[in-house]
What we know:
By secondary structure, the protein is of the alpha+beta class. It is 39% helix and 13% strand. It is built from 24 helices and 20 strands. The strands form eight sheets. It has a six-stranded mixed sheet, with helices on both faces. The protein has a two-stranded antiparallel ribbon with strand order 1-2. Strands 3-4 form a two-stranded parallel ribbon. It is flat, with a radius of gyration of 37 Å.
Amino acid sequence: MLCQNRVxxxxxxxxxxxSHLSFADDVVIFASxxxxxxxxxxxxxxxxxxxSGQCVNKSKSGFYVHEGVGGETISRIERxxxxxxxxxxxxxxxxxxxxGRKRVSLFASLVEKIAxxxxxxHSRLLSQGGKxxxxxxxxxxxxxxxxxxxxxxKAVIKQIEMIFANxxxxxxxxxxxxxxxxxxxxxxxxxxxxxGLTSIREMVAAAATKLWWHFRTEDSxxxxxxxxxxCSRSHPVAKTWQYKDxxxxxxxxxxxxxxxxxxxxxxxxxxxxxxxxxxSGLGAIAKAMNIPEKSRAKDTLKSFYRYGRWCLPDLGxxxxxxxxxxxxxxYAPDTPLWKPESNGVFSFASAKKYxxxxxxxxxxxxxWSRKIxxxxxxxxxxxxxxxxxxxxxxxxDILTRFGYNIVSACCCCQRPKSxxxxxxFCTGEAARAVWSFFANSLGMSLQVRSLQHICYQWWxxxxxxxxxxxxxxxxxxxxxWELWVNFTGCKYGGERSSEARTVHRxxxxxxxCIARRWPAWDAFPFDWHAILxxxxxxxxxxxVERDSWCKPPRGWIKVNHATSESKKxxxxxxxxxxxxxxxxxxxxxDLAMNLRELRKMMAQDIWAxxxxxxxxxxxxxxxxxxxxxLNLRPDEGEVKHLTCRKCVNxxxxxxxxxxxxxxxxxxxxxxxxHGFQRLLELEGLPHFTFLPGQDLT
Length: 697
């Protein structure tokens, strides 16, 4: 009704005319205050109220105008509409609507909402692993609704990440605990040396990537509006931004520079822009060839295809070769492909992965950060190992860097030495005894130099089977954890250092890891030597099954039957006791006949042929779930139904797919489709099926 009454405001030429936006029971109307536009709007709303029975809540409604509008105009609008005058900014669908510069105060409610969520969780007994799960699954998703539409100031991102960090490290007696690592270091992928938390900056950048992808690939009202406003004369890839442009457009153009090269078009109709869309895999032609004067060019790829051949400008052999590989199809749309993903499908997760890849430094494959986060290791153990390798634990040699004067003495040794990181985890009496016990039991000779040296020696060791590999890869992390438990128990719990107790706990940790990986196995005992004994006799018994087509007994015929992949066509293949061809056929039903009726009709025709040939013993063989219905009296004959694998039934299956949609009978092998006589010659050769093995432990 608003569109019919031409209630609108000044908009870009050539674009869609937007009069209103609505979501659920909220409606935003865009209009000019000039002339009788306001009276038309009020009349339209009255008609809607009368016809629908719904009334506008005037106490919750209001109008917004430019800050430069005079008081007389505002009074006139209030008099006509009976609505209150409200000022920017305001919140709509959780997103702040503002004019002018972005301010931190616009996001104050969001920051307070996240902080309140964390305060509600502080009173609960949450481990750091539990907190990391809540941060990744709940807290980091809360601001993304707003950040998908608005690019927040850096100060807001810093405030939110500070809230996350304070929640993760916790507090004691009302005071925040020391943050042993920066949030920037922790919010990296585990393969890049981080903890696996996601950076808010990466998520904001991924949201900008998503905006540009939707703008370039989807046909929506939002895209048409932006194109008309900013790209009426230039292609979006060639358009430059200006300071007067909106924040959304400037954000999208900023993401364009790194994202556009990852968008490639799979050509169908050929409606892609020849100069600015990457249809060749070489990037935008105008950009690659440095032809800036083509910024306004709207030539499509199909416009260069004339009279059955390509008529391209002289742009070099690479462009010509790329065009020759393309065949236009007027019935297929041009499809965008996201190059970072092998399947070409874009998603927000793939955008975050891409931002993480271009923003981080990938560590070598043998780096310790790729080993400590192995599956089935408790998060607390992996996180402690990460802190140890990063030197982020409260030991004397690390605390001295903060200016503390400490008289260092290890409480785990009979002859106390300096309580350093290498001493507690590597060279101390307890650490050396534990490492030596497990190394000797595995037949390893360790050269104790440093903790990293020991772990790398451990991970490089050749393994006998996958169970041993599983244990050896996880042992260093479990040993580091139990050495820390032993140290803290001696220092703060009044316990005495015990090598036997530490070995038992490590053995228990290994057995629990194995139980998490293979839950169907019998539980491993908490005895290291018993675990090693089972590891040595660990193996897999490979199961090999042999299948082949078998001839029927004397006096019988065998009918192999199958259904096509489309479930619309059935076929059969008849052979006698010597394996010779007797009859074959293909049946295709009409739209009113289902598959069951088609099989029943085919079975009846086969039996009628058998009666004419005076054959009374028939074996029907087909894949499981594809039985034939044939009801006979005892005096008519004997029928057997057998099941087989698809590879054994390949003759009938190939016939159904080759002759799909046909109704035909083959009375001799010479009339079969091309290649089937060769298949008949190979019939009877065995098919070997390798099934998943069974573990012997």
